């Protein structure tokens, strides 16, 4: 589903549109992210896990294979990519960083997601979902010819499941001058939970500037007629190191081991009294463990947030 919030008023002023009049309106709105493309990426991550002992965990071959596959898609689209290595638990870990050429180098918007799974399973919802959605949003930058005012950077983090290791290493490796160029960091970790909630990271207690990101994400869901709740994700994902560095943060989340309440089931559907993701950190976190509607909506909200924040 495509999110068009801005410029609907001007579309109305233009009046009954010919195709020629309508085109500029949609060209300026955030693009639709094809959920089929995100699902195809999840199938690829599942295949990588299956071919590598059933997981994509730090220090295991399925992790580096995941990095190399995402990198190849970004390289082909013209991103400038780099792989940053670090050591954890006696094994080498990797972050994949991708810059889109152009935009103000002193005003960077960054999107990130962890690409590693736990050792127990393939990690398709946690966090193939956020990783594949960010990948398709990045590829949409190229496909749509988006010319953002700000500079765009994307990160796929290693060893999140071992304690936010990769993202923390990345932030700590940046000189102060480079840190201060990152004006916003948006994190996507679990966006296709099978019994989904629609949670937006609360800006409360986060660096100033986070409220605007929270509101932008909320507006994206509102445009899709989806109600949201705020959630305090605290230090549970990769935004934490950015927040500690004073960088405004935001994100979305469809829920992990927590239980959906009856009030939530009434507004979102799904099953009350059951976990948002019954396969969280288990071997059953496969391509079968994804709610396509939640995946689709979150991917479109990510695009909406990037287009809005970076325009
Ligand atoms: N950090 C997630 C994990 O990888 O296990 C789960 C999570 C994400 C929990 C976001 C809360 C909020
Ligand atoms: Zn996760």
UniProtKB/TrEMBL annotation:
GO terms for biological process: proteolysis. GO terms for molecular function: aminopeptidase activity; metal ion binding; metalloexopeptidase activity. Residues 95-305 form the Peptidase M28 domain. This is M28 family peptidase. InterPro entries: M28_fam, M28_SGAP-like, Peptidase_M28. The lineage of its organism: Bacteria, Bacillati, Actinomycetota, Actinomycetes, Pseudonocardiales. Belongs to the peptidase M28 family. M28A subfamily. It holds the Pfam family Peptidase_M28. Keywords: Hydrolase, Metal-binding, Protease, Signal, Zinc. Residues 1-22 form the signal peptide.
